[in-house]
Amino acid sequence: MKPIAVTILTGFLGAGKTTLLRHILNENHGYKIAVIENEFGEVPIDNTIIGDRASRITTLSNGCICCSKSNELEDALLDLLDGVDKGQLEFDRLIIECTGMADPGPITQTFFSHELICQRFLLDGILTLVDAVHADQQLNKFTISQAQIGYADRILLTKTDIASDNEALIQRLQLMNARAPIHTVTHGDIDLSILFDIEGFVLNDKLSVTPSAPVFRRIPQPQNNIQSIVIYHDKPLELKQISQVMENLLLTFADNLLRYKGILSIKDDSRRLLFQGVQRLYNADWDTEWQQDEERKSTMVFIGIDLPEEEIRAKFAEL
């Protein structure tokens, strides 16, 4: 049975999550989409109660499904699966719309900590919407707003029709999350191929990062609690040594790390070693061999809260 692809939709209050969600649900994309959200808008619905946990599951007029749960996300997911198994529901994608002040971390970990949910759902990616008009003020004032950026696989910049000069904001977002491409979205309108099939939590070699060189500006750079550290290593690494450095890094800073991913060149092995993680959840495996025309070097990206960059760089530089 093919797992159901899951997209987490996050972003600070007023960033445009509901507008984007409305656009997705109204598009002629051929998907049967279920949505877990906290509140319902004025939509024609057919109320149904499913499961002992009594989630509120509603079917919209276009065939999409909405599920509102006041308690645990885990229960809402199990209720949806109950509906599928009983033949009462049918969907092939799930979107979870977070509240504006929600931390995506616990939501993300739900898909790795429950055996049945791990089997039946596959977390595809985290989309973070950023309000171009108010983003700097929100990022300066609320750490949760920065955390939403740190977890992102895609950053969607909204209200650029009102705030058109976004160069400084984009540079700031790239410093916070070097691995998430930034796209603009106007009134929820965006190509759905950007939003779906991201494979953000699949262990693969998709790792493109923005340049890590310092950005020199005449105005002071804002202070970010969330930052990206991009590390390159030209020489092949000893597997035992890199394992020890990673274990120490997780032991010391696991609560500060949000997302991390790397492609490693290992001494005396022709294959690439891939790793990725979310906070304490971490996995690694061997990938395909390095190609002859491919630059063989290790690339690692760490995104976290108040990470000691100099100390982390020094540890890898010692290898």
UniProtKB/TrEMBL annotation:
Pfam families xref list: cobW, CobW_C
CDD domains, A to Z: CobW-like (cd03112)
Origin superkingdom: Bacteria
GO molecular function terms attached to this record: hydrolase activity; nucleotide binding
Catalytic activity from the UniProt record: GTP + H2O = GDP + phosphate + H(+)
InterPro entries, alphabetized: CobW-likC_sf, CobW-like_C, CobW/HypB/UreG_nucleotide-bd, P-loop_NTPase, Zinc-reg_GTPase_activator
Alphabetical UniProt keywords: Chaperone, Hydrolase, Nucleotide-binding
Function text: Zinc chaperone that directly transfers zinc cofactor to target proteins, thereby activating them. Zinc is transferred from the CXCC motif in the GTPase domain to the zinc binding site in target proteins in a process requiring GTP hydrolysis.
The protein's name in its UniProt record: GTPase, G3E family
